[in-house]
Amino acid sequence: MSCFVIEGGHRLSGQISPQGAKNEVLQILCATLLTKDKVTVSNIPDILDVNNLIALLQDMGVRVEKLSAGKYTFCAADVDTDYLRTPEFLRRNASLRGSIMLTGPMLARFGYALTAKPGGDKIGRRRLDTHFEGLRRLGAEFTYNKDRATFELKAAGRLRGTRMLLDEASVTGTANIIMAAVLAEGTTVIYNAACEPYLQQLCRMLNRMGAKISGIASNLLTIEGVSELHGTEHTVLPDMIEVGSFIGMAAMTCSEITIKNVSYDNLGIIPESFRRLGIALEQRGDDIYVPAQDEYAIETFLDGSIMTIADAPWPGLTPDLLSVMLVVATQCKGSVLIHQKMFESRLFFVDKLIDMGAQIILCDPHRAVVVGHNRRMNLRGREMTSPDIRAGIAMLIAAMGAVGTSRIHNIEQIDRGYQNIEGRLNALGARITRID
After folding, report:
1. Among the listed residues 257, 307, 318, the one whose alpha carbon sits nearest the alpha carbon of residue 282
2. Closest alpha carbon to 252 in 384, 398, 423
């Protein structure tokens, strides 16, 4: 198992570009199963989760060709549906949470889908009811095998369009239902749909393939089913989570950096959320400039009460950045309540930050109060283990701003979401060594 050794206290300087968005590309790759024609996708990040999904698609019979760095073609003309029933497929499927989005396309095009209970981050219970209830509403027959922990869906003929109100605005659940509904007979109306930019990207790509989706960017989607889809080309957006991570790194290390080509209009509330922590970032065209700051003060609410930063469905703040913002707050001037609503175990990594010298009160699995040091007390280097992607990058940011040397184990979690992170940061002046 690999680890990072981080020598803290080094300032960063220069320019860095975010990779393609992990959360978008997983949806896009699954959508290539909806047509027998070629689909060309650009700006694909070279990260574990994406590479594992590409390999899984190949084993399912999808012809994959790498054209250049980050650019691939996918042709799902000869998918082997029998492979879904093999122990190997279920094992690999279970290790990759993004594979749950194979279900909608397979069901819509082939009338059958089998998936194992997916793995991924260890951040608490992540139910799949929204996915399967939506697919059942479209006419699928659903069976859960408790002994094998597998979900099986069958459709007798084409799925049928319907109206549905989702019980939660699940991004992956909405994506799965959309990908099934585009080939269903009749019209599907989805209310309380997720509407993140990455889901908007999926809908626009499907429309270019011949789908008829309206209401894009809202939580009310109308989908007129078509009999087939065709090939297209698609470019993945920059990863907003990486953009936020780089902002956090600059703040923690008192560094001046420029984050290039961020697709600023698709960042939503993210820049303003960091400004609430006192970080003076600037938009320069489609770039973000973060100046070096020796001090940044957390805002209060208008009545002077302690600021709360909480996640929420889009256009609210993505939960994937709360871990980063929590770390940044440890060196702010002032206090903030971090409220992680969506996942029940994602804040449990804060005990490692407390060991480093951070002043954090973990109120319950969802809330933590951070009392900023205002740099009067530096974090100290420590040995840590990453439980998930976002906690891993938060630990890395903490280690970069700490005094002394830190070691982070289980960095395969970080590799799942961040491409060559040590090489890119070392080019800016960080001191990170990977030990295999």
Report:
1. 257
2. 398
Q: What is the amino acid identity at position 52?
A: N
Q: Taking the chain, what is the end-to-end CA distance rounded to the nearest angstrom?
A: 6
Report strand pairing: 282-284 vs 287-290: antiparallel
Catalytic: 78? Answer: no
Among candidate residues 37, 82, 121, 355, the one labeled active-site is 121
- Closest Cα to residue 215, out of 181, 265, 241, 264? 181
**What letter would DSSP give residue 403?**
B
Which residues on adjacent β-strands are paired with residue 401? none
Q: Cis before residue 238, ω within 30 degrees of 0?
A: no
SS (H, E, C) 102-157: HHHHHHHHHCEEEEECCCCCCCCCCCCHHHHHHHHHCCCEEEEECCCCEEEEECCC
Residue 94 DSSP code: H
Q: Rounded to whole angstroms, how far apart are CA atoms 266 and 318?
A: 12
% helix, strand, coil for the chain, step of 5: 35, 25, 40
pLDDT per residue over 327-342, tens digit each? 999 999 999 999 998 8
Q: Which two tokens stand for residue 219?
A: 């939580």
* pLDDT tens digits, 340-382: 988 777 898 999 999 999 999 999 989 999 999 998 889 999 9
pTM score, whole prediction = 0.94
Model confidence over 238-289: pLDDT tens digits?
Answer: 999 999 999 999 999 999 999 999 999 999 999 999 999 999 999 999 999 9
